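Problem 12. The chain below contains 207 residues. Write out its predicted structure in token notation.
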Amino acid sequence: MGKQVRQVTQARPVPVERQRRFTRVGHAVVAGLRALGGRTIAMIATALAVVLAVIVTGIVLSRHDSRPPIPATRARHYTDTDACLLTDHQGINGSTAATVWRGMQDASLRTHTRVSYSSVTGEQSTANARPFLNAMLQSSCEVVLAVGGVEVKAAQETTGRYAKIGFVLVGGGSADKTTTNVSWVPTGDGLREGVAAAVERAVDARN
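Solution.
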């Protein structure tokens, strides 16, 4: 059995001229760094690090955030007119009051009127409802709505003293021919649309 002879390839020596060229380049780099000084080198290194960080951040964001930009929301602008609703202790949770409130919101969308409501707490009587109504009349409410037996009665007793305020009363009453600031909206089908139309008329009359 014969011996296997392994051939070993010898490394080729680097030409002398190339070695000298590398040596001259290295010396030039070292001389240049010495001329710059340690402080300048540190500043250059910091600048390069910042640039590199910005590039990396941009690449990461471009790869991982492919969502379309969110459009800026448009703020809703309201007029200086306020429509205020007076309800019983249930607030706008009662079925009739909830429908009235939705009608007010419909009118607000078309007229940009601010809408709010206040509930009569405590005893459900006309006498107890008056302070809550007076708070509305003495604030910025140009249009006052009332839903509920004692709330409507309290508002009806007040309409003559506040001719500049528009009243929208929900129920089965009828407007006095001598008053022009009172609108009645019957309950039942069409309540929401009727409230919205009445609020719009009252707002237009005061603008």
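Discussion. The first strand starts at residue 82 and ends at 87. Students who got a different answer should revisit the alignment rule from Section 12.3.
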